[in-house]
Amino acid sequence: MGIRCIAQPAEEPVSLAEAKQHLRVDFPDDDALITSLIVAARVAAENICRRAFVTQKWELALDGFPRQNFFGSLSAIAPVDAFIPNIIAAEMGYVVRFRGGKIELPKPRLQSVDYIKYLDVGGVQQTLDPTQYLIDPMSEPGVITPVINTYWPVTQNVMNSVRIGFTTGYGDAVDVPEGIKSWIKLRVATLYSNREEVAVLNRGKVEMLPYVDSLLDPYLVVYL
Predict the structure, then answer these.
(1) Can you give the pTM of this predicted structure?
(2) Which of 7, 42, 97, 120 suits 17 as a labelling partner, its CA being 20 to 30 A distant?
(3) Tally of domains in the chain
C-alpha cells in the first residue's frame, strides 16, 4: 500500500514574482534558490493540511478492495479475514480510510477518478468500468464506492493489487486560498533568511509568530 505523485502541479500557488515582492528582492541572482524554496514551502503546507493545492495527479496502491464482513469490520476480499487498516501513513501527509465498501481518497479536493485497475484472481490486470462505481467529489476527502447493490471485484492476494489514479487540487494557482499563499510566503522568507540548519541565537529566545500556522487552520483535513 502506498501513494505516489504521477503528475506534479504545472505551477506553484505562489509565483517567483510574488515571492520576490514579499522578500523585497529585486535582483535575479537568487531566482533559482527562491524557486526551490517555494516548492519546499508548498510541499510542507500540503503535508500539514493533508491536501493538494494546484491540480496534480496521484496513484494510490492498495492490497485489496475493502469489504464489510458479517461482523462489521473491514477486511480484504482475498483472503477474507485479512484486515486492512483504516488509516495509512497519517504522519506522511496523507490518510486513506475505508468505511464499509467506501474508499476515502487522500489529498482533497478530489476532481476526478482517472482509473481503477486491479489484478483479478488469475493475476491479469483489469480496468474497472467507470459505470461500476460512484464518485463523490463534494466530500472532503472524496469518496468512491461501488454502485448500489454491487461489490468491489475479487482481487489476487498480492501486494498493491489495486491501483487508483485520481486528479486532485483546488485548480489553478489563482484558485488556491490566500491564507495558504500567505503561509507559503512566510515560510519562504524564513528559509531565505536562514541558510543553515542550526541558528546561533544572540538576542534571546526566538519563537514563531503565533498567527502563522493558524493561517492554515481553515484548510486542514480533519479525520474524526
Answers:
(1) 0.84
(2) 7
(3) 2
